[in-house]
């Protein structure tokens, strides 16, 4: 079972996913402080909890840890949708209702995704042959995936990530 992230966990993970690189507690703290008053130890505890839950991995760098997402926001969202959809007594009706809630752009994105999964149409109008084994679920029962596929690092963003701190300043992150 995938549990939704708490409000502060989501705020932290949003930054980790957006920056798409290993980050320190201090970097996340400084960005969170733009929105709210928050203590260093609070952010450190949340990031440690995310590590214990398997959402981030960390590596020691001097006296600090650098945290990196184990999975993508898309995989997280997909696992939440899949779990909620699985609770429905009538999955087809749930999908129809979901589709009707979507904007035209969202509906087109769904059509595009279905085409990507099905592959090119066969001449008979039926989808091309599918593999006999479905792909592995992006999130295992009860926890995020242990080993995600690597993502490209250079992703342009409207908001630049904060500059990396000077490792020589020794801010005691751990």
Write the SSE topology.
Blueprint: H1 7-19, H2 25-32, H3 40-53, E1 56-61, E2 64-69, H4 73-86, H5 91-101, H6 104-118
Helix pairs in contact: 2-3
Task: Quickly list its features.
174 residues, mainly alpha, 43% helix, single chain, disordered C terminus, elongated
Q: For the report, how would you describe the main beta sheet?
A: 2 strands, antiparallel
Shape: elongated
Report the helical percentage. Answer: 40-55%
Total helical segments: 6
C-alpha Rg (nearest Å): 20 Å
- Side by side, the strands of the main sheet go 1-2
Low-confidence stretches: 131-163, 165-174
Mean pLDDT: 79
Total beta strand runs: 2
Q: How far from one another are the termini?
A: 30 Å
Note the run of SSEs as H and E. Answer: HHHEEHHH
Helix vs. strand class:
mainly alpha
The percentage of residues in β strands lies in 5-15%
């Amino acid at each position: 079972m995938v549990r939704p992230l708490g409000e502060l966990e989501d705020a932290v993970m949003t930054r980790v996913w957006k920056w798409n690189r290993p980050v320190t507690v201090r970097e996340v703290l400084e960005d969170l402080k733009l929105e709210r008053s928050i203590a260093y130890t609070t952010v450190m505890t949340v990031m440690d909890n995310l590590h214990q839950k398997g959402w981030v991995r960390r590596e020691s760098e001097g006296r600090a840890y650098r945290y990196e997402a184990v999975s993508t926001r898309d995989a997280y969202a997909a696992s939440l949708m899949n779990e909620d959809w699985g609770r429905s007594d009538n999955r087809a009706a749930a999908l129809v209702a979901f589709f009707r809630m979507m904007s035209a752009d969202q509906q087109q994105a769904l059509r595009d995704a279905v085409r990507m999964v099905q592959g090119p149409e066969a001449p008979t109008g039926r989808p091309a042959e599918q593999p006999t084994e479905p792909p592995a679920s992006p999130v295992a029962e009860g926890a995020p995936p242990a080993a995600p596929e690597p993502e490209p690092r250079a992703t342009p963003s409207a908001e630049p990530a904060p500059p990396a701190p000077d490792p020589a300043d020794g801010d005691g992150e751990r």
